[in-house]
Amino acid sequence: MNTTTNLDFEFEAHTNPVSDADRAVLLANPGFGKVFTDHMVVIKYSVEKGWHDAKVQPRGPIQVDPAMAVLHYAQEIFEGLKAYRTPDGAVTLFRADENARRFRESAERMAMAPLPEELFLQSIRELVKIDEKWIPEIEGGSLYLRPFMFASEVFLGVKPASEYLYMVIASPAGAYFKGGAPSVTLWVSEHYTRAAPGGTGAAKCGGNYAASLVAQKEAIGHGCDQVVFLDAVENRYVEELGGMNVMFVMDDGSIITPPLGGTILPGITRASLLTLAREQGIEVREERYSIDQWKADAQSGKLREAFACGTAAVLTPIGQVRGNGYEFMIGNGGPGIVTEKLRAELGGIQRGTVPDTHGWVERLG
């Protein structure tokens, strides 16, 4: 079996790529997840051959057999990361090695063939090199990269698949939340939980997100932007939002965030912010924080700020929280000083305007 960490990529150019003029129109206001670049990465896996047939090819539909295992047993994982344009015209990746590590760990949790981390990184670099002209020049613009892998074996037995397809697509991105609002409103889910001990909460698999959609629909129905999930055992401790981690800034300047423990996705943005906060002299506490305490602290003024964080959302202030028995505002309902300072530093490192003292940024070219 081929266990190499590097492969030679075959490149097939798109015969009818989007014109420069049409691309400029699309990039003026791309939103999030609706516009896609010209090319994609495809790598195949089989037990007999290992990883093979690495290609960068025109983006387009793929052929799916109705008995393909992923359609029946949901063996699927994905990642999300971004490429940025720096003021001097270079292209950067931010902590892509951490995405590669998490992708491997997700594969192992889902009993899938782990993609070598260096091959993950190679695939990202290959696609960005070909489609870097799709990075928006607008403020806050980036190229969102979506690596994913699924069970492609045609077989209906319940077992780990023996064949997988790994792919990467890219999407120019602007603001994640509609309208680029200064803060978001959350809905507290009473009836649904995102993950339970022993489950797949720490893996970035589609099933976690599918399970969250009914609660997200409920949140939207109540005029909220996102759902916040509580723990599955006591239904009282804050865990994370539908697709991002959460942090709380107290009146003494300290930050509280729910601890990792198998039910929360170990966010790369989360980890980066905790490092930056500690370097700024901010006390960081990874500890359980109940919804009732959140309400009490917000109403007393002990809680000054709260924000969601993730690759797509970056740092998004939380202005209000609603739910059955919950209706409270955090601070002035908008961005806070600590939130803005951390967002500026993280964004500056990613885009090359703030020195990277951690070796987090890779310049491509």
From TrEMBL:
Residue positions where N6-(pyridoxal phosphate)lysine is found in the record:
204
Annotated keywords: Amino-acid biosynthesis, Aminotransferase, Branched-chain amino acid biosynthesis, Pyridoxal phosphate, Transferase
Spans traversing the lipid bilayer: none
User: CDD domains this protein is in?
Assistant: BCAT_beta_family
Q: Name one GO biological process term.
A: L-leucine biosynthetic process
Entry keyword annotation includes Amino-acid biosynthesis: yes
Q: Under which EC number(s) is this enzyme classified?
A: 2.6.1.42
Q: Which InterPro entries match?
A: Aminotrans_IV (IPR001544), Aminotransferase-like (IPR036038), B_amino_transII (IPR005786), BCAT-like_C (IPR043132), BCAT-like_N (IPR043131), BCAT_family (IPR033939)
User: Does the UniProt entry include the keyword Zinc-finger?
Assistant: no
- Which Gene Ontology molecular-function terms are recorded? branched-chain-amino-acid transaminase activity
Which reaction(s) does its UniProt entry say it catalyses? L-isoleucine + 2-oxoglutarate = (S)-3-methyl-2-oxopentanoate + L-glutamate; L-valine + 2-oxoglutarate = 3-methyl-2-oxobutanoate + L-glutamate; L-leucine + 2-oxoglutarate = 4-methyl-2-oxopentanoate + L-glutamate
Q: Which domain of life is it from?
A: Bacteria
Kindly tell me the pathway this chain contributes to. Amino-acid biosynthesis; L-valine biosynthesis; L-valine from pyruvate: step 4/4; Amino-acid biosynthesis; L-leucine biosynthesis; L-leucine from 3-methyl-2-oxobutanoate: step 4/4; Amino-acid biosynthesis; L-isoleucine biosynthesis; L-isoleucine from 2-oxobutanoate: step 4/4
Q: State the Pfam families in the record.
A: Aminotran_4
Stated family: Belongs to the class-IV pyridoxal-phosphate-dependent aminotransferase family.
Q: What does this protein do?
A: Acts on leucine, isoleucine and valine.
* Protein's UniProt name: Probable branched-chain-amino-acid aminotransferase
Top-down, what is the taxonomic lineage of the species of origin? Bacteria, Pseudomonadati, Pseudomonadota, Alphaproteobacteria, Sphingomonadales
